[in-house]
C-alpha cells in the first residue's frame, strides 16, 4: 500500500475545518490513508511575517464572507467561534497524546474539536473545553487534562510544529502527497487529480 | 442582457494571467461579457500590509512551484519573467488609454502583455516594451508612448486603482459578479457556479 498522505492543519483554521470534512474520503478513493498533523500556525506566521487573515484590512471582511460561502457550497454547517482566531495548544496536545496510542481515536477527537469550534461556534481554547468534547468519545477527562499539562506532551507539540515548518508547511490546510505540497482547501481538486494520475 | 462581470487584475500577477486565459469563455457560457480592469496591486498591498508572495519565506518557494504546476494543469504555457514581480504602470496606462476608444483592442493588448510576460517570460516594464507588444495589434507606437506619459492617463490609472480598493479589491485576480466578490484564480469554479445558479 502506498504511503499515507499528510494533512497539516491548525484547529483555529476554517479552511482546515472544511478540508477535514473531505480529506479522508478523498484519499480513500485512491486507496490511501491520511496522517493528520495539527500544528500551531501562529508559529509559522512568525517565519512568514503573516498575521491572521481576518485581522487584515480588506482581506478580513472578504475572508469571513468566503469561509461561510465555501461551507455553504459544500453543504457543511459553519459558524465562526468567538474569539476568532483562537489559541489551539490544548486541542493539539490532546491530539498528540492520543495519537501515539490510538491514531483513529486522535482523529475522532480532531473531528469533534473542529465540529465544536466551526459547526457549533463553541469556544474550545481551554483544556476543559477539549475534555468536554472528548468525553462522548470515551476519552478520560482526568487523563486528558493531565496530558495537556505534561511537559513531554508540550515538547511533542513543539517538535511537531518545528517539523512542519522544516517541511515548508506555512498554512492550513497543507497537504503533502508523496512529497508534493498543496496549500489550501482550494487545492483539494488538485490533490484528487495528483492522487489519480501521479502528477502532471 | 445582464451586467458584465468585472475582472480585476495586476499585469505582474501569474494567477491573473492564468485567469485571463479562461475568464471570457467562462462568462460567455452564461451569456455574460467581461469588463477587464487592470490596477496596481502594490497600492492595495500598502493597505493590506502584504508584500509580494514570492518575497515571503516559505510561501515564496511554494508559490513559484504552484504558479508553474497550476499552469501545466491548464495546459497554459508559463515562464516567470525576470525581474519578478515587476512594476506594470506602463501596461496599465496603455490599457486605459485604449479602453475609452476601443475596449476590445484594450483587451487584446492586455492579453498580449500577459502572454509576453508569462508565456514568453519577457520584461514588459518599459513603455517601449509595451509598445512593441502592441505593434502587431495595429496600435501606433508613438501615440502609445505619448499616452503613457500623459498626465490625464496617469490620473486615470490612479482613479481606477483607488476605485478598485474602494470596492474591496485587494488581490489579483479579483472577480465581481453582480456585486459578489471572488478572490483568486482558484475561485473560477465558484464563479462558474455562481453565474449558473445566481448564488447559493
Please provide a written account of the structure.
Two copies of one chain form a homodimer. With 200 residues, chain A is of the alpha+beta class. Chain A is built from ten helices and four strands; from the N terminus they run βααβαααααααββα. Chain A has helices at 14-20, 23-29, 41-48, 59-74, 89-99, 103-119, 127-134, 141-148, 151-166, 188-197; strands at 5-9, 34-38, 174-177, 180-183. Chain A has a four-stranded mixed beta sheet with strand order 2-1-3-4, with helices on both faces. In chain A, helix 5 (89-99) packs antiparallel against helix 6 and helix 7 runs antiparallel to helix 8. Chain A starts with a strand and ends with a helix.
Attribute tags:
homodimer; 200 residues; alpha+beta; 4 strands; 54% helix; globular
Structural class of chain A: alpha+beta
Order of helices and strands of chain A: EHHEHHHHHHHEEH
Can you give the mean pLDDT of chain A?
96
What percentage of the residues of chain A does DSSP assign to strands (E)?
A: 5-15%
Helicity range of chain A: 40-55%
Number of DSSP E strands of chain A: 4
Q: Give the largest interface.
A: A-B, 32 and 32 residues
Spatial gap, N to C terminus of chain A: 22 Å
Report Rg of chain A.
16 Å
Unreliable parts of chain A: none
Question: How many individual helices of chain A?
Answer: 10
Strand order across the biggest sheet of chain A? 2-1-3-4
